[in-house]
Every structure is written in structure tokens, then in C-alpha cells.
Structures
1.
Amino acid sequence: DGGITQSPKYLFRKEGQNVTLSCEQNLNHDAMYWYRQDPGQGLRLIYYSQIVNDFQKGDIAEGYSVSREKKESFPLTVTSAQKNPTAFYLCASSLVGGQAFFGQGTRLTVV
Amino acid sequence: ILNVEQSPQSLHVQEGDSTNFTCSFPSSNFYALHWYRWETAKSPEALFVMTLNGDEKKKGRISATLNTKEGYSYLYIKGSQPEDSATYLCAFLPGNQFYFGTGTSLTVIP
């Protein structure tokens, strides 16, 4: 079955650590996105990619990095420069301009 | 940062009531407007993809309308059922990016 998979579902990070969230899709979608959700707020775009080896910053890219070495994969690294990383992270993919398909999310907590 | 607003923020209705929500978006550079349903512990799923001014879409008891000139879309649910309880998100696409509203949380009371 085609779909989009995020892992892990829950992640705990110590202060000063980098952590990487995985996002994989087998829908043959060109575009992939990372969003962050905080309590009471909507989905805010961190990074997006429309093609392999190319990606653009979204509204809140500071403290995050991504790579797009393969069409299927768009991992997000939360670096130690991100001062408030505790949040729910959602990955999505789409055909360019088409509807988005979402993963089940990763809840990151700083301990 | 584009501003996409949804109202109301939350809504509680009795089973069988009909209800509607609003999504407001910029009226310039319109490419598409999407509606998604996000149930607790699940991923958001697309309800409608709307691209033309005056578009009306329907899926069972749920329907949506679109006015691109004034920058709003309405989502209607007729005869709400408990399984309709979810957060309903709209997304405005001026091109290839999605700009999401904060969502309307619907609770249908049996």
C-alpha cells in the first residue's frame, strides 16, 4: 500500500543534542514538506522540497536542517540551535499542487 | 507569511444539527483551496480540492463552496454525526506551498 511513514512516533531529546526525524513516502510524489504544530496554533511550514537535491526554507526554518537525496526520503534534523524544539512535527507529500498526504507525526520533547 | 483564518475556533453541536465553518484567505494569487479532516490520533485526510471560483464540492453529508474573488470558502456538514468530530483544516495554495489555517475543532454530542 502506498503511503507516507514518519518515525519515531515519540522522541526525547536532551538539551544540546541534534535529533533527526524520518519521513519516507512511496507515493512517487515530487513535493515533500515538514510542518510544526504547537498547542493552539496551526501548522507552520519549516522546510519544503519540490525536487531531489533542492529544498526551500519555510516560515520557521531557523534551527532546523533537511536533506533530499532521494525522492522517497526527506529527513528533518532538529539542531541544538532550535531553542524551543518541543512540538508535534508532521511530514507531508504531494504531487506539485495536488492534495497533501500526511504522516502520523512525531512528538518531540526536550528533557 | 500569508494569513489564512478559520472560524470558529471550536464548535460543539448536537447530533443531527447542521453546521458550517469559514476559511478566509488572500484573494490574490489564488491557485487552490483544500479542506482536510484531522481526527484525533490519525493523520489529516483531504476532503476537497477546489480550484475554480464558484466551485461547489460534495461528499456525502459534507459540502464546500469557494469564492476566490472575496477570499473565502465555507464547509457545511448536514445532520452532524459523532463520527464527524474532528478538526477541519483549510489550506490556501498560491502556488506549490500550503498555507494552513488554525483549524475548526468540531465536537458532535450524541
Note: Chain B has no helices and eleven strands.
2.
Amino acid sequence: DAMVIQNPRYQVTQFGKPVTLSCSQTLNHNVMYWYQQKSSQAPKLLFHYYDKDFNNEADTPDNFQSRRPNTSFCFLDIRSPGLGDAAMYLCATSTGTGYSPLHFGNGTRLTVT
Amino acid sequence: GENVEQHPSTLSVQEGDSAVIKCTYSDSASNYFPWYKQELGKRPQLIIDIRSNVGEKKDQRIAVTLNKTAKHFSLHITETQPEDSAVYFCAASSAYGQNFVFGPGTRLSVLP
């Protein structure tokens, strides 16, 4: 089945230790997104790629970076995780052509110790 | 930029009753409005969506209505069941379909 796959499901990292979360998709969608979600709050957009074009949200901390080496893969790098970065990180895709919903992966729950 | 408000933040209904969740948006350029259901610890899943050129859409027990003039859209769930208990998010998207702005969510509890 075509889908959005996130690995790992659970990630534990130490305060200040860099961590990378990964996402892959078999939907061949143009747009890939990274959202941060805390405690059943609304997902908060960190950034998205339309193909190779990177779009950063104005309030996304510099601590967060992303890479999209090809259509199928996208990575979220957290350079120096703080306790406040503990959250669910959701990857999503869409066609980007309008009237197209977001397709979410199962998320990675990040714990910072 | 777009701002989406959602009410109520929590909603409890008896099994079999109807539930209504309302959202308002600010950007008249928004023209696509999906609704997502998120169960505890799981990903948000699309349950229904509506385009701006449509006033109402129904899928079994779920319906969405849109008032483009007033910039309101609502989710209606009839004959609620315990498995409808979840957090529901509305969202709005512009014509270019890249940016989705979410409402803050409604926690629905269906009491047996």
C-alpha cells in the first residue's frame, strides 16, 4: 500500500545530543512536511518542501533543520535537543496541487532525557 | 496569514446523540477544508473534506457544511458511537494547496 513511513516510532535522545528523524513516502507526492505536535495540541508546521524548494516557517527554531535528498525521503535534524523539544513529530505529504489532503505518517515520539 | 478557530475545545455527548464542531477561518483565499480525527497516540486521519465551491458534503454518519460568506465550516456526526471518541482538527488550505492551517482541536467524548 502507498503510504508515509516514519522511523523510528520512538526515539530517546539526551539533552544536547543531535538526533535525526526520517520519513519516506511511496505516494510520489510533491510536498513533504514536518509537523511538531505536543499533548493533543494542533500539529505545528516546522517546514515543508515543494519538490526541492525548502520553505521554513518564521517561528521554527534554528535548532531544527531538514533535508530532502530525493522525492521519497525527508529528514528532520535536531541539532541540540532541549527538554522542550520532546514531542510527537509527524511527517506528512500532499500532491501540492490544491484540494489534496495531508497524508500523515505514524509519527516519531521523541523523548529528551 | 490564515487563522483558524475551533469550538468547542471539549465536547461530551451520549451515545446515539449528534455532535457538532464549528470552525471559522480568516483568509478568504482558503478554498479547501479537511477534517482530521486523531485517536490517542495515533496519526491524524482524514475523515472528510470539502471544497469552497460546495456547500455540504456527507459520508454516512459524517457531514461537513461550509458557509463561504461567513467563513464558517462545521463537522456534524450523527448517531455517535464510543469509537468516535477522539480529538478532531479542522484545517484550511489555500488555492495552492501547500499550506494547511489547523484549528486547535476538539476533544470529543462519546459516553456509553
Note: Chain B touches chain A through 28 residues (CB under 8 Å).
